[in-house]
User: Fold these one by one.
Assistant:
Number 1:
Amino acid sequence: MKLSLLTLATAATVVNAAYPGDIVYYWVDQSATFVNGTVIGGLQSPPSAWYQAIVQAAVYQAAVKSKNESLEFQQLAVSHAAHNSALWVFHGSRLYNAVDASLRAIIPAIGLDPNSKKGKEAVQTGQKAAAAVAQARAEDGITNFLDFTYGPKEPGVYQQSPGANPFPDTPQAQFVRPFAGLGDITRFRPPPPPPTDSKQYEEELLYVKEQGSLDSSARSEYDTDTAYFWRESSITVWNRFAGALVGDKFTTKVLDSAKFYAQLNYALANAGIASWDSKYTHLGWRPITAIHHPTPWVSSGRDISDPSWTPLLRPTPSHPDYVSTHSTFGGAASAVLQAWNGGSDELAAPGVTVSSNVTLDARGVIERTYTSLREAAEENSASRVFGGIHFTFAGVEGVALGQRVAKETLKQFDANWDKF
Ligand SMILES: *[C@@H]1O[C@H](CO)[C@@H](O)[C@H](O)[C@H]1NC(C)=O
Ligand SMILES: *[C@@H]1O[C@H](CO)[C@@H](O)[C@H](O)[C@H]1NC(C)=O
Ligand SMILES: *[C@@H]1O[C@H](CO)[C@@H](O)[C@H](O)[C@H]1NC(C)=O
């Protein structure tokens, strides 16, 4: 009699407790806020993807280890995995209060007492998962110093942009060990950009000069909004896109959700590394440097120089043009989302609606609805040209690179996800 009452009580707890939302997405979303809260107000592109991949690796590991347990056990385990990995990454950024607050807020919603026997086991499962990933990632190369020397001030050669840092961002990120055992990242490297004395280069230069300038009268209002809409960290916006696409399909399926977001963020992190490999190999100059260049250099021989030209998005980021990492991230994310979408590029009606979360130049929050993943990735890519910070070829090749890297990441994932 005693035993069956106890069993009933336990069963009742199981049924009534558990966080009703998608616990993995809760942490994906909180992570975007943590990145924003760092002392510099964000991270450089590859580290921002690297960070989210580390958190999601730990979350997936915790989900795998607790997959036979109750829903709230799984939720508590992945929450501690996310918490500890976020703090491992941001330990030096004094983010303890913010990360602790996110965990403190979700524990009552999960409902499993962390001090109960099962609760303690769940906490430990999450903490162990975070430690395993941190240990494996401690020597992945992201913290290694790699110095940089600018090349000669000749057509096509990358230089510091006005308002940018004196040294370009994290050159060492091109050598970071990829996720899911991807191995040599250079095999994905895009061909060199078109020669600066080609007709194509001149056409693209004139296009970004006209469409991407701060005071452009040629750019449409829609395209100006496109530049602002996609301005946010790609990792944040594509994870939000993913969350809007999957909706509440994963609320009781922690393992499936953890796998999906690990795949997405591994692919994004690998895309960031591949993009950096291309940037620091090809060292292409930015549109602003090309347009400010004092002597004629385009194929027709005419003088296109305008030393006062200013791009819409300012300052031009502190790293080379080719390829656009924003576009590479978009290519990678769209490939993972397409795989999740049964291989289809088309999004079921009424499509996926996403809000921007960066308000620049008093433009306000912008909302967009997409019915095709390719369309979203291409618009994301074009946004950097309308912003005046990239050539079109840097975006086109970036999207293609991201897709190649993501497809290979998905192929390797099941066999190698836990090599960290
Ligand atoms: C879950 O249960 C299955 C079937 O009993 C077992 O093979 C597997 O090892 C268990 N997994 C974990 C992580 O406990
Ligand atoms: C932007 O993100 C912050 C932090 O998550 C949130 O408080 C805010 O409501 C978001 N704004 C929009 C428009 O989504
Ligand atoms: C991140 O910071 C920007 C700039 O302060 C802000 O507009 C945006 O809402 C923040 N986003 C999140 C997710 O907190």
Number 2:
Amino acid sequence: MSSKNIDVTILESLNHLLSNHPHLLPAVYDMVHTQLGLPKDQLRWLTGQNRIPLVDIHQFDYDRQLGVEHDIRSKYQYDGDLAQIYANNKGCLVHKWHHYIPLYDRYFSAYRGKPIRFLEIGVSGGGSLQMWRKYFGEQAIIYGIDLNPECAKVNGIAGQVRIGSQTDTEFLASVVAEMGGVDIVLDDGSHHMDHIPVTLKALFPAVSVGGLYLIEDLHTAYWDTFGGGYRAPTNFFSNTLQDLVDDMHHWYHIDGQKLPEVSSFCPAIHVHDSIVVLEKQPLQRPSRSIIA
Ligand SMILES: C[S@@+](CC[C@H](N)C(=O)[O-])C[C@H]1O[C@@H](n2cnc3c(N)ncnc32)[C@H](O)[C@@H]1O
């Protein structure tokens, strides 16, 4: 059955049902897809479901009685102190997915106690800057940028805050210049598919060799409210990440590099649930030998 044949009242009823019970969304999609033959992505478009998250966010709740720190430690067998730093954050609001904490520590621990230059895109309540200050120490140069002028009120508490957009390349360059360069960038900003590559292309060249560039909350790549969608051409994973992987292997095909400003200095990309980590190092032409 094509979408044209579906009675609009059925769609309205489904829309109403999902408005009150968003957790039923995957089941309803599945039912409509398998039984009515309607592509899942069209249902959302037809029913105007863009207002409702594609997945029910409450399924990711943790056991509040056991607490945040317990959840992080027990799920990920994590024994570092970042779980305690995060869970005991006071004052300024911080919002992180629990599985990010061990990942941050895996990639950032070598930089602790050093005068590293750390830039987080997306300040919000300022709690993450507080967390980074406690984690990296007093020597770290910590900056956050945010589009929202309200974020200026947390300027100077744990780090420097500058107001501007992650798509404004002149603004980004001015912040990096003020920082005296940058060793780690963490993109926790708009999470919009149109913005992430713009920021990456502007900031990755500025990252020092040996540094890191992280993009988080990439589950948004699957949500059309962020310009993404499952296997959508705009999805970060099927678009920019695919280009970077192809570029990394450009020695072995004839299609050239799509993003040389990034890929010429990116020999390793780590993909985790919702986080991508790019290592900044020159991409070396591979050599081979046969040794008898
Ligand atoms: C997820 S919140 C950041 C959370 C914070 N890093 C934390 O861990 O608690 C995203 C922030 O990005 C900001 N933002 C949205 N679009 C932006 C843009 N184009 N440029 C810079 N910041 C943006 C929002 O104002 C918001 O404060």
